[in-house]
Design goal:
single chain, 281 residues, mainly alpha, MetI-like fold, two-stranded antiparallel sheet, 13 helices, 2 strands, flat
Length: 281
């Protein structure tokens, strides 16, 4: 066999897998989104964008991503730096911090529901301290800010570990000699972080942010567990169109809108954190 064809042969199984389980279903969804009884049109997109819940769902999804992702990035950077500096117990601490990765979205939402519901931990603690004399229904339309904060905390707790794992791996690839040389020349820990860690971590930051932002726009189970219809998001509306209203065309249109938003933000992140040609770690 010609060695030139070996790389193509090796990636053939993956290519076939993607075509079968991603490209083909995507084409079916795209066809469904643009198809109506009268033929191909944008009617499904007009229907979903004209619905009164659409701007609210869009605002909630973008707001959640805009607040949660930067907090997770800051926490992941801090935690990754701490892990990298540890001499003993590094693996144990990293294992404990990444436990939420093994918990599903819905399970994470139920865990935080047990904290915020009327018979949950927060009410029990407040009652024990004498702050309230009867349980408070935090997750209700009367407390929209608390509903948002509960969802935000659940997402931060559940998904920060995704970024942490990527950043720990990235920091581990930075040569120690750079830090030693900077220390010799009197650079403070903060300067070493700004001048060495962040620039050299750019490829890992790019990967972590792209992955996390895409997942942020797909948030669903945590919102359903804690907010339900009180906090509509784009993916929740997609589910409602498909399984409650039985409108597959509208659901497909919503899915393509979410995909378009994800692609747009991915391109922005890749542009902002692009790695110069020929650059190494």
């Amino acid at each position: 066999m010609n060695p030139r064809f070996l790389p193509y042969l090796l990636i053939l199984p993956v290519t076939l897998f993607l075509c079968l389980f991603f490209l083909y279903p995507f084409l079916l969804v795209a066809k469904q989104a643009f198809s109506t009884a009268s033929g191909l049109s944008l009617e499904n997109f007009r229907e979903v964008t004209g619905y009164w819940k659409f701007p609210i769902s869009m605002k909630n999804t973008l707001l959640l991503a805009a607040i949660v992702v930067p907090i997770q990035l800051a926490l992941a950077l801090l935690m990754a730096t701490m892990v990298n500096r540890m001499q003993k117990g590094r693996d144990l601490i990293l294992y404990i911090w990444t436990i939420p990765l093994g918990i599903s979205d819905l399970a994470a939402g139920i865990i935080w529901l047990a904290i915020f519901e009327q018979s949950g931990f927060l009410n029990s603690m407040m009652n024990g301290l004498g702050v309230v004399d009867r349980p408070v229904n935090f997750l209700s339309y009367q407390h929209p800010m608390i509903v948002f904060v509960a969802i935000m905390l659940a997402e931060i707790w559940r998904a920060t570990a995704i970024m942490l794992v990527i950043l720990v791996a990235g920091i581990g690839l930075i040569p120690k000699e750079y830090y030693e040389a900077a220390e010799v020349f009197g650079a403070s820990p903060w300067k070493r972080f700004l001048r060495i860690t962040l620039p050299m971590l750019r490829p890992s930051l790019q990967t972590a942010l792209v992955l996390r932002v895409i997942l942020a726009f797909e948030i669903f189970a945590v919102v359903q567990a804690l907010g339900g219809t009180l906090f509509p998001v784009l993916m929740g509306e997609t589910y409602a169109y498909q399984f409650e209203l039985l409108n597959g065309g509208a659901a497909a249109a919503m899915a393509l809108i979410i995909l378009g938003i994800s692609i747009a933000f991915t391109l922005i992140i890749m542009r902002a954190l692009r790695v110069p040609k020929g650059a190494t770690i």
